[in-house]
């Protein structure tokens, strides 16, 4: 087990706390569970909403960096009984740096909570499920006083060869000011970032430009990846390192198209929730791998991480296979009242900042998304959208930003987005043909701030209950879904004005019973495979049509 698909350190000592942790849910259940996992896998807790206390012991000493890749959805963390802090949101990583821990046995305690408590603006009863538990890996690292907190890599092509802007953040958790020498290597190209003095208790950013004349481009059908190795030395001796994987590619927008390395993208893939029958949102690597292999079998080349940032191991797989990613900050279907929740802007801003800062280097991510079907049609919603998009662009000007809207005739925010993205359900929630609907959206968007911008169909699809067949081919039969998906693919893949289509959705997912009692089986059944990845009729059609498509 690992929290990434490659080694992130050669110098820094790092272990995963992936043994069985003790868990107690007073009055309901007590025992040991693997980390990561969802507590809903335990029969007594299959629909439980509330608190659980996790506890583990570990032996070490020194400066500690304790990182949780994801706790669903509110966490309070204690170390040897002392409170380290708390975190909101299931889909972002968070860390605690504790200096000079004495040698010996230590206890880590986590109180996880998935109740829809009054401070929760984003996790609400919804068309997916907010699970409970430590659902992504936990790592414990021994760090020197001055250590690397992150490295960001932004490639660009200058005079026919690749360069990259490198930003390194260093922190000093010691009690004395200190000086280190920083350097970065990517494949055969290296950059000495020089000496850097950091005051005790401070954090500092340093930047530099790496020339990479040896680098090959990262392309969808030839996804060349490099290890980026950032190293700190003191008196010539390596003291800390951080390794990430990067690719050299540029995303640009021109003439109404999204260009990757100068070539227009024409993508076809899926919306995918992190949800898999018995595993809930804590998919083991082999289940993620299976999804990727199903994508490849289908001929899909893009995925939208609806409606929240994903486990980084899934993004690592997308990097490896050249599956391009729309990654999305956490939010779905919030009307103005919900957006006026006193914590909404703070929690939303945290979600997008964690997403960008933690997933900055993934070459497969080609667009940042946010605010799926939120109140972008009101003045208040417009203010929120503008502020958040500005924040995203300040953090990363190298990728476009978009949001999935659905408010034809009244949306007010197209002007802030680089790409017009629209969720549409012709043949399911409305009676139009796919072609009619696309034309309607495009001619409206042109005069609503979308003129000249690329167009993405961020959702389109139909429901089908696995195994339900009927000669009348009514809604909810596999036949109905199959016929509509054929129409979607035949219409959209021939349309040069559509830069990407994300079918809704890849696999069925569990929904909260409070969200919408009318969802059969308390699932969103629009997957082309069910929640166990059993194929519906449409699977074969998608594979047949996508394999034959010209790209
Ligand atoms: C929306 C929404 C999805 C899902 C879908 C549906 O457009 O963005 O999360 O709820 O509709 O199945 O109706």
Describe this structure in words.
The protein is α+β, with helices and mostly antiparallel strands. It is 19% helix and 38% strand. It has eight helices and 32 strands. It has helices at 285-298, 312-321, 336-339, 344-359, 379-395, 434-450, 478-492, 537-547, and strands at 13-16, 20-25, 29-34, 51-68, 71-72, 74-79, 82-88, 94-113, 133-134, 138-143, 146-158, 161-172, 178-186, 189-198, 203-212, 218-219, 222-223, 226-234, 237-246, 251-254, 257-260, 263-264, 267-271, 302-304, 324-328, 365-370, 401-405, 420-423, 455-459, 498-503, 509-510, 523-524. α4 (344-359) runs parallel beside α5. It is globular, with a radius of gyration of 24 Å. The structure holds alpha-D-galactopyranuronic acid. Alpha-D-galactopyranuronic acid is lined by residues 127, 332, 372-373, 406, 423, 459, 504, 524, 526.
Secondary-structure-based class equals alpha+beta
Radius of gyration: 24 Å
User: Termini distance?
Assistant: 36 Å
Overall pLDDT level: 97
The total strand number stands at: 32
Summed up, the helix count is: 8
Gross geometry: globular
Helix content: 10-25%
Ligands (ions, cofactors included): alpha-D-galactopyranuronic acid
Profile the largest sheet.
8 strands, antiparallel
Strand coverage percent: 35-45%
**Uncertain parts:** none
């Amino acid at each position: 087990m690992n929290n990434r698909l490659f080694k992130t350190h050669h110098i820094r000592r790092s272990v995963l706390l992936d043994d069985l942790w003790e868990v107690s849910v007073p009055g309901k259940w007590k025992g040991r569970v693997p980390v990561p996992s969802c507590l809903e896998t335990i029969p007594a807790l299959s629909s439980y909403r509330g608190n659980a206390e996790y506890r583990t012991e570990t032996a070490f000493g020194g400066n500690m960096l304790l990182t949780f890749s994801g706790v669903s959805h509110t966490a309070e963390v204690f170390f040897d009984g002392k409170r380290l802090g708390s975190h909101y949101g299931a889909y972002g990583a968070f860390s605690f740096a504790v200096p000079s821990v004495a040698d010996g046995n230590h206890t880590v305690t986590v109180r996880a909570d998935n109740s829809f408590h009054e401070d929760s603006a984003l996790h609400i009863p919804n068309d997916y499920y907010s699970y409970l538990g430590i659902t992504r890996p936990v790592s414990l690292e021994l760090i020197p006083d001055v250590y690397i907190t992150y490295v960001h890599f932004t490639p660009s092509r200058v005079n026919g060869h690749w360069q990259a802007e490198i930003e390194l953040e260093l922190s000093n958790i010691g009690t004395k000011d200190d000086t280190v020498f920083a350097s970065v290597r990517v494949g055969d190209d290296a950059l000495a970032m020089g000496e850097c003095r950091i005051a005790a208790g401070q954090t500092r950013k340093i930047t530099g430009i790496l020339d990479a004349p040896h680098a090959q481009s990262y392309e969808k059908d030839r996804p060349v990846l490099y290890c980026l190795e950032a190293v700190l030395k003191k008196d010539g001796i390596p003291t800390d390192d951080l390794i990430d994987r990067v690719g050299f590619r540029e995303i640009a927008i021109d003439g109404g198209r999204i260009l990757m390395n100068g070539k227009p993208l024409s993508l076809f893939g899926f919306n995918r929730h992190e949800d898999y029958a018995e595993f809930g949102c804590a998919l083991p690597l082999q289940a993620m791998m299976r999804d990727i292999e199903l994508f490849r079998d289908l001929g899909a080349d893009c995925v939208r991480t609806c409606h929240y940032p994903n486990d980084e191991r899934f993004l690592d797989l997308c990097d490896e296979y050249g599956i391009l990613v729309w990654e999305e900050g956490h939010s779905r279907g919030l009307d103005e009242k919900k957006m006026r929740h006193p914590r909404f802007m703070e929690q939303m801003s945290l979600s997008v900042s964690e997403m960008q800062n933690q997933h900055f280097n993934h070459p497969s991510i080609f667009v940042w998304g946010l605010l799926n079907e939120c109140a972008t049609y009101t003045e208040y919603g417009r203010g929120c959208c503008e502020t958040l998009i500005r924040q995203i662009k300040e953090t990363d000007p190298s990728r476009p930003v978009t949001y999935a809207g659905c408010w034809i005739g009244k949306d007010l925010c197209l002007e802030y987005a680089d790409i017009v993205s629209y969720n549409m359900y012709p043949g399911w929630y409305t009676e139009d043909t796919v072609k009619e609907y696309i034309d309607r959206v495009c001619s409206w968007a042109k005069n609503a701030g979308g003129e000249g911008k690329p167009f993405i169909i961020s959702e389109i699809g139909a429901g089908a209950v696995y195994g339900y067949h009927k000669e009348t081919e009514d809604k909810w039969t596999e036949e109905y879904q199959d016929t509509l998906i054929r129409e979607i693919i035949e219409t959209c893949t021939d349309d040069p004005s559509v830069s990407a289509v994300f079918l809704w959705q890849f696999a069925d997912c569990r929904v909260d019973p409070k969200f919408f009692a009318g969802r059969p089986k308390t699932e969103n059944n629009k997957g082309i495979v069910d929640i166990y990845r059993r194929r519906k009729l449409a699977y074969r059609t998608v594979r047949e049509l996508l394999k034959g498509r010209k790209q």
